[in-house]
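Long-time lurker. I teach an intro course on protein structure, and each term I like to show students one example going from raw sequence to a predicted 3D structure in token notation. This year I'd like something fresh instead of my usual example. Would anyone be willing to generate the tokens for the chain below so I can use it in lecture? Attribution to the forum is fine with me.
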Amino acid sequence: MNKLSRSQISAIDQQYIWHPYSSLTSPIPAYEVTSAHGVRIELSDGRQLIDGMSSWWCVIHGYNHPTLNAALHEQVERVSHVMFGGLTHEPAAKLARTLVDLTPTGLEKVFLCDSGSVSVEVAMKMAFQYWQSRGVTGKTRLLSLRNGYHGDTFGAMSVCDPITGMHHLFHDVLMQQVFSQAPRCGFDDDWDEAYITDFETQLSGHCDELAAVILEPIVQGAGGMRFYSPHFLQRVRELCDQYDVLLIADEIATGFGRTGKLFACEWADIAPDIMCLGKALTGGYMTLAATLCTEKVSDGICQGEAGVFMHGPTFMGNPLACAVANASIDLLLSSDWSERVQDIQSQLQVELAHARDFANVADVRVLGAIGVVEMKQAVDLATIQKAFVDRGVWIRPFGKLIYVMPPYIISEDDLQLLCHAMLEVIASLP
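-- Reply from a regular --
Happy to contribute to a lecture. Here you go:
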């Protein structure tokens, strides 16, 4: 096929392509990308944008990294894909061993899957099949936190916030789960046992029908970019043990250093029964996720009636994805990522503090390489997106939230430019 012109690409995009959370009758502009290097995305008109989103939080090493490029080139010369049913390969074996070594103690079994949402589906299915295999047939629901977000597939949608979340339109066709209040304790707040009261009430009142609790540890992401106390997570772990309910930690957005710990569960020094990983797992190069569980969970499933776990994606354990995941994790661990994330946090705290003086701002909060400005009113995406692009940055807000989660390699100067553009646009809003 001949190379398409810019106008052809734009016309095809507007006529045929359905972008995430977008309208085909009233589309907002989609900016054509021709290349990306480091923390910069280059548009077809030559403009370069400093990326403040890490392409939805996954490009932690920046774009076009030579180490990750080399891993893909080397693997594609061997085998790009082979079915995982009855076959295995070195990239998957290395990745599984690494994930077991890095994640909290006790997570010893690894199920490789396609995406974050699928990882959540797998975790839910693991929890349900575990209890069914043990002959406990009544545990068919999950307890989730309000303001949580776990993905766009049907099982994952059912544990997202049912009212303020993005999936309330599907309420009547989703599994009806149990919800407790979102954590009311900020990350640094002194602990008050009242913060856990509603959670314990829901857990104790429904424990006979609950297969698991599912939550995003420490940071509630797309459901509100809210940070909560590690003590809350500690108490959740204790209560799950007390009421004999499994705990699923959704670390898809928080895993691999984003909060300042390698995994957010480390803030509370707890280990879940099941953990979901994705996003930064491959450094943003390939779609890949993983669901880890304890031997208790895997034994419970495999010693039951079916004798096997009833799931198997076509692209499970894709060698290309596993190879670049291994390279990405090695790159992260060989770097000073912890110090770098701390530096990003410190600069975000200083730079974004100015937004507290704006009349249209409700709150400013920072944790690790996450900086959030919460507005008093929802922003118009098309208008604010153009304003950011015109200032040479890529920031994609949603609702009332204007936030950045930049690649860890971002320089002090580029982060300053990113924050200054953010403040300029916020100051211009009503």
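Some talking points for your students: Residues 224 and 417 are 25 Å apart (CA to CA). The first strand starts at residue 33 and ends at 37.
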